Amino acid sequence: MRYILPFYHVVSDETLPHLKHLYRVKSVREFEHDLDYLCRHYEPVTLDAFIRFGNNGFQDVRRPIMHLTFDDGLRECAKVISPILKQKGIPATFFINSDFVDNRAMMFRLKASVLIDALFHISPLSSTHDEIGRVLCCPKKRIIATIQSLKYSDAHLIDAAALVVGIDFNDWLTKHQPYLNADELRQLVHDGFDIGSHSVDHPEFRYLPIDEQVSQLTVSVAALQQMIGTDVRSFSFPFTDYQVSKHFFDTIYANKMVDVTFGTAGMKEDVIEKNYQRIAMETKWGVDFTLAFQRLKWMGRSMIGVNHIRRS
After folding, report:
1. Terminal-to-terminal C-alpha distance of the chain
2. Is the same domain home to 190 and 273?
3. Residue 125: is its pLDDT beyond 90?
4. Where is the NodB homology domain positioned along the sequence (predicted)?
5. Which residue segment(s) compose the domain that 129 sits in?
């Protein structure tokens, strides 16, 4: 492929309870190593440049390019990531959930991680586990697995279980401030980075009716534009764009709601010309193995003609 789209969520040398039980967080040293490797093999480009190259089928690309992206709008994007990117001269886009800016609300999976972390500090023999089992309608031995399996529509169960262990997420947000605030978003724009939409509050789109899918995009784009005072031209799907219909893409592009969208399927091509797939970099492997594995999958799928995502 003539381009890659690596994506991360956060970089930190600290243990973050709201992420600890979700995915592997890379350290500053690991992240800088990733960037050095990526820049040796790919030319970093801005979002505008990536869109221009894409509009021409990447025919003008001389050296393979990359555009770096970050999802969920966590505060480390401003505190840790952007200073490193500025020092190295690497452009990037930060995809933001509009409801979470200023720590006004919290994604359900981050809540789940906080709850799981708290439970690991409470004896499984305590009555707390019995009560949480009743809230979640599961046996004590299945509490952690049940919490990990909860969906967007189950957020109320996470809130109720958290109260049993004494966690009020409004208080938790006020104390820990895991998300970016509007001033930090504006500073990222001032520093030359792009801001994109990542939906209002991070649902998985395949479980939403199309009117709610469109609303998640349009409402978040409008809110972010009001916050930062500039156009928001890009959207990355929360979780995945798996089973998102062609009708959705036809709707948003016909009405010029955004210029480009991004999924998370790795090195795959999409029947939707302006929908590009990104590579998750928060793996247990190094950057070299992660990309080599993606290339092998891409070549294998291409050989048997299954590397295009089709949509009904």
Report:
1. 25
2. yes
3. no
4. 64-312
5. 108-175
Q: What is the CATH number of the domain that holds 60?
A: 3.20.20.370
pLDDT in tens, 133-149: 999 999 999 999 999 99
- 134, 157, 175 - which closes a domain: 175
Which of these, 95, 94, 84, lies nearest to 35 by C-alpha position? Answer: 84
- Please give the single-letter amino acid code of residue 267: M
Q: Got the DSSP string for 102-163?
A: GGS---HHHHHHHHHHHHTTS-TTSHHHHHHHHHHTS-GGGHHHHHHH--GGGHHHHHHHHH
- Residue 108 and residue 105: Cα distance in Å, rounded? 9
pTM over 0.90: yes
Instruction: For residue 137, give every residue at least 6 positions away whose Cβ sits within 8 Å of its Cβ, in sequence order, or none.
Output: none
pLDDT bucket at 124, cuts 50 / 70 / 90: confident
At residue 256, the pLDDT reads 97
**Do 208 and 72 belong together in one domain?**
yes
Q: What secondary structure does DSSP assign to 247-267, as a single string?
A: HHHHHHHHTTS-SEEEE--SS
Question: 86 and 197: one domain?
Answer: yes
> 269: exposed, middle or buried (C-beta count within 10 Å: 0-12, 13-18, 19+)?
middle
